[in-house]
Amino acid sequence: MKSVISLLLLATLSTACSTTTQPVTVQELNRQFISAWNSKEADKIIAFLADDVQFVQGSSHWQGKSEVASKWVRATLPTLDDLKTFTVSSGTDQQTAYEAGTFSVDVLPATPAEPHGTGEGNFMLLWKKGADNAWKLSYAQLEDLPVRVKQ
C-alpha cells in the first residue's frame, strides 16, 4: 500500500511540476512582423531576425542578420507600403513555425513623376525558437511578379 501511495504521490508531483509549453501562433508572429513593415519600424523588423537568417528572392540570396537587414529590410522598407499576406499553408511544432501564401504590396515611386505600383507574389516565412525561447525569423523567401502600375 505504501508503494502505491508513493507512486501516486510521485506521479502527482511530476505532473504538477511539469511546464506546459504553449504552441506558437505563427499567425501572431507574422502579424507582428507585417505590422512592423507597415509602420516602417526597421529596428523592430531587424529584432525579429535570427543571427543566421537567410533571405531568398529570385537570384538574390543573403545570409546573416547584418546582410539581410542591410540589403532587404533597410533597402526595401522605404519603397513599400500596405503589405498584405494571404495564407495558403501554415504549421508549427515545438521548435519551428512556418507560413506560406501570397502577398500584395504598394510599391512607391522612386521619383514624383513615376506612377505608384502594385507588387504581388508568393512568400514563405520560417520561424525557429532559440535557446532563449524567443521566436526568430530564420528563413524568408519571396517570389514576386513584375510590378504593375497601380490602377
From TrEMBL:
Q: Cross-referenced Gene3D superfamilies, in alphabetical order?
A: 3.10.450.50
**UniProt keyword annotation of Transmembrane present:** no
- In the UniProt record, the signal sequence range is 1-18
Q: Where is the DUF4440 domain?
A: 26-137
Q: Does the keyword Nuclease apply?
A: no
Q: Name one Pfam family in it.
A: DUF4440
Q: Which UniProt keywords apply?
A: Signal
What is this protein called in UniProt? Nuclear transport factor 2 family protein
Give the organism, scientific name: Larkinella knui
- Taxonomic lineage: Bacteria, Pseudomonadati, Bacteroidota, Cytophagia, Cytophagales
